[in-house]
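Re: [ENG-882] Designed sequences occasionally contain unexpected residues at chain ends

Forwarding the minimal case from QA. Structure tokens:
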């Protein structure tokens, strides 16, 4: 399972097996080798962003969402963090023989409830049925298409010295709430997934300017998102443990199970590297949206090796490592 969990083991699989298997790996500036959230596709005087993702979450319904909302938001956000306006999706649905039609309908309607208000069209798709016992219920695979909205593509490698590092919401909500729900842990809490589409607030902060890099902390969590920006940009990112927005429920559950909130996934948050002159205005805009109202400045970018360094609550410093894999499998 770790080979698909977003950490070091999956990265090795991509670098050693998947990516080298293909001779032609890009059409525009960003392709497979960059391992960004999507790829660039220049057509005439316009530039498009294309992303693709498979969604295998278990269970199909969880506090705060379901497979349909998750697949829609994941696709929308992958397009948005590269500075593009989502315009269309394709959708492949694979279901197990005997799957309830009404459950399928609910999941499809949930997906539509996310993309329809954003004027994102579902333009193509495919449906397959697997024999009973050969698939765990249902999986969805999506492709997203967006038109570049920002002046240039926003990539993982764009952070600049002096930038502020912002996280748009509490860390680890999705992975932690899913774990508690899946395992039947009896906590008296209203913790739920943060799954949400983020194009609206992202569009507004792009309009402000100064956004140099963005990454959604899905598999592998905030630790992976921060490290990818740091390593690809070749700068050190310094963060403050006392500034990290972590809900008490998430912190308590992670402490109980020996997990690190920084490694727990989000499905409605973004890590942003933004010019320090714009951080206050960006935070003000983000805090005006329900999905990003808890946005916080957690650190900065400075000269140094491509790594993430955290000042702890007691004043020490430690390197934030890329986890070997997602501690909670099948979260997305």
């Amino acid at each position: 399972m770790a080979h698909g969990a977003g950490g070091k083991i999956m990265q090795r699989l991509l670098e050693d097996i998947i990516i080298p298997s293909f001779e032609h790996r890009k059409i525009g500036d960003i392709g497979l080798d960059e391992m960004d959230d999507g790829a660039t596709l220049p057509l005439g005087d316009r530039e498009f962003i294309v992303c693709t993702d498979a969604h295998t979450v278990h269970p199909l319904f969880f506090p705060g969402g379901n497979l349909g909302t998750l697949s829609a938001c994941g696709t929308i956000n992958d397009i948005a963090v590269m500075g593009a306006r989502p315009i269309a999706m394709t959708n492949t649905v694979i279901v197990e023989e005997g799957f309830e039609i009404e459950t399928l309908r609910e999941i499809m309607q949930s997906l539509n409830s996310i993309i329809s208000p954003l004027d994102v069209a579902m333009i193509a798709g495919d449906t397959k049925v697997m024999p009973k016992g050969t698939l765990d219920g249902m999986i969805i695979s999506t492709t997203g298409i967006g038109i570049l909205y920002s002046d240039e593509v926003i990539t993982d490698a764009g952070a600049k010295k002096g930038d502020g590092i912002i996280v748009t919401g509490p860390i680890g909500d999705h992975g932690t709430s899913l774990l508690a729900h899946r395992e039947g842990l009896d906590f008296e809490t209203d913790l739920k997934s943060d799954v949400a589409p983020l194009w609206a607030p992202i569009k507004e902060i792009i309009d402000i300017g100064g956004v140099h890099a963005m990454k959604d902390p899905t598999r592998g969590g905030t630790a992976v998102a921060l490290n990818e920006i740091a390593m690809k940009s070749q700068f050190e990112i310094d963060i403050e443990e006392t500034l990290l927005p972590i809900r008490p429920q998430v912190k308590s559950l992670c402490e109980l199970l020996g997990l690190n909130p920084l490694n727990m996934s989000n499905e409605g948050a973004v890590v942003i590297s933004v010019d320090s002159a714009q951080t206050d205005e960006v935070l003000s805009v983000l805090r005006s949206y329900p999905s990003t109202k808890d946005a916080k400045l957690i650190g900065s970018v400075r000269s140094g090796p491509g790594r993430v360094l955290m000042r702890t609550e007691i004043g020490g410093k430690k390197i934030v490592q890329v986890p070997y894999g997602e501690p909670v499998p099948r979260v997305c």
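QA comment: On inspection the terminal residues look reasonable. The domain at 164-319 is CATH 3.90.650.10 (Phosphoribosyl-aminoimidazole Synthetase; Chain A, domain 2). Proposing we downgrade this to a documentation issue.
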